[in-house]
Write the C-alpha cells for this entry.
Amino acid sequence: MDRNVALVLGGGGAAGNAWQIGVVAGLAEAGFDLTEAADLVIGTSAGATVAAQVRSGLPAAELLASVLSEAGRPVAGGPGRPSRSPSSAASSLPMETVFARMRKISAAATSALELQRAMGAFGLESDAVLAPEAGEQRRALVASRLPGTEWSDRAMVVVAVDAHTGEVAALDRESGIELVDAVTASTALPGLVPTHAVNGKRYINGGVRSAENADLAAGYANVVVLSPFGGRGEAPLQPGQFEGLRRSPEWGTDLPSQVESLRKNGSRVEVITPDADSLAAMGTNQMDPATRVPAARAGYVQGKREAARVTLTG
C-alpha cells in the first residue's frame, strides 16, 4: 500500500544529524533499509538535512561513510553541520543568551501556537543583530551539505514554522519552495541564525513546534521515529546541556502525545532514541561538529541492534 511506512527524523544538531544517519545505516546493514522502505520521510531541523540525504538515492552505507570520512578533516562545511557559518556565528547572540530567552518564552506560553509565535517574534527581532549577508551565506552553506538540490520524486516533508503567524509549514515538492530553501528554513534557530525568507514569508526552525512533528505521519500503517532528543528526559541532563523548549502534553506537540495519538488511530509506531553509548558520544553540546563522527559510529551500532525489535505491519 502507498501509505505503509513513514520515517520521522527529528531535530538534534550536528550530533543528532550524524546519529540518525548512523542508525539508518545500521538498520540497513541488518536488513531493514529505510532509504527504500519509507513511503514518506518527514524531517525537522537537523532531521530535514537527514531527510534530504535519505531521499537522495545514495545507499545508507555511503551516507554513513561520508560522515565517517570527516574524521581528521577541518570541520567547516560538509553535510549536517551546525546551521551557522563562521561569519554569522560571530554576529549571533551568545548561546546562553539564546537559551535564557527560550526558557523565558517557554515559561510564559499557554499554548503551542503562543510559543511558536513568540519564538517567531524572537527570530525576527534577532535578525537585526545578525550580519546583513548572513542569510545568503547560510543558504549557501546548507546547499553545500545536501547531496542534491532537487526534491525527490518520492514523498518527503520538511517542517518549518511561519515566523509571523507561528503556524506550522509542511514543505514538500508541491509547495513551490526549493529544497535548499526548505531545509534552510527548517534549521533556522532563532537567535543563532537569521529567519529564512521565501516567497515573501519568513520561517524559523520546525523544531520550535515539535522536535519530531510525528503527528504529520497520521494515516500511515507504520511509523518509525528517530528522535535524538527523545530519550533525554529519562536521565538527568549533563552540566551545561539545554533542556529544550517546554511542551505541555495538552498541546499535543510533545513526542509521547503524538505517538499516543498515532497509535490510537491505528498506526504501529516504533521510536528509537539514543541509548547510553549514543548519548555519551553525542555529548553535552549537540551543535558541536566534533561530535559527528562518534555519534554516527554509536548510531550505527545501535541501529544494527534496534533492527531486531523494529517490525512492520501490512
Summary: The mean pLDDT is 90.
